[in-house]
Design a protein that fits this description.
It is built from five helices and no strands. It is mainly alpha-helical and about 90 residues long. The chain has a single domain, classed as Serine Threonine Protein Phosphatase 5, Tetratricopeptide repeat, CATH 1.25.40. The longest helix is centred in the N-terminal third of the chain and has 15 residues.
């Protein structure tokens, strides 16, 4: 699975199936491959947590900062419709 497929599957698990633990693992795998989008999703997931995933402000901060390092947050902030161009 490539990064985009990992994120798509993670989002399906997260939002459609409510399997937060599986979503966390998929986001983590994509983030470790350098995905700013996945790092952002992990940061957001750790803010509120969910079934099997405890809220964790330290992890949230870490992954949101990684998202910035990977350039994701800057891209969204400067061009909110960047994802439409893919």
């Amino acid at each position: 699975m490539d990064v985009e497929e990992l994120i798509a599957q993670a989002q399906k698990e997260h939002f459609e199936n409510g399997d937060f633990l599986k979503a966390e693992k998929l986001y983590l795998k994509a983030a470790e491959l350098g995905s700013g989008h996945a790092a952002h999703e992990l940061g957001v997931l750790y803010i509120s947590g969910g079934a099997g995933v405890q809220p964790d402000s330290g992890k949230s901060k870490y992954w949101l900062e990684k998202s910035l390092e990977f350039g994701y947050e800057k891209t969204v902030a400067t061009d909110p419709e960047w994802y439409l161009k893919k």
